[in-house]
Amino acid sequence: MLAASNKLRGITEMIYGGIMNRVTMKIDGMMCGMCEAHVCDAIRNAVPSAKKVTASRSKKEASFLTEEDVDAGSLKAAVDATGYSCLSVESAPYEKKGLFGWK
After folding, report:
1. What is the pTM of this model?
2. Which range, of 10-14, 65-69, 80-84, 91-95, averages the lowest pLDDT?
3. Cβ neighbour number for residue 24 with a 10 Å cutoff
C-alpha cells in the first residue's frame, strides 16, 4: 500500500511539477453565486499560482491547490478587503485520488 502511495505521489509530481498543497479557508458572509465568484477572484489575485479555486456559500469555505507556501495573513487580508470575513486558513498536503475516489 505504501508503494502505491509513493507511486501516486510521483505521478502527482510529474503532472503538477511538485508537491501540491490544498489550502482551505473558512469564510463568512457569502450569500450568492456572485459572492463565491468575488472570493475566487480575490484568491486568484492574491495567489497567482492557485489552481482549482472553488468557493461554497453553503459550506462557508473556499479552497484551492498550490505548489507554493501561502502567507495566511496576506490571503486573509485579500479576502477581508472584498467585504467577507476570513475566519481561518488551513493548509495540508494534497494527494490526487484516482477513479471513483480510490487511491
Report:
1. 0.76
2. 10-14
3. 14
| φ/ψ of residue 35, rounded to 5 | -60, -45
**Topology, domain 19-96:** Alpha-Beta Plaits (3.30.70)
The Cα 41–Cα 38 span in angstroms is 5
Digit-coded pLDDT (tens) for 26-48 = 999 999 999 999 999 999 999 99
**Exposed, middle or buried, 30 (CB in 10 Å: 0-12/13-18/19+)?**
buried
Find the helix or strand (DSSP H, E) in which 28 lies. Answer: strand 21-28
The C-alpha cell that represents 87 in the structure block:
475566519
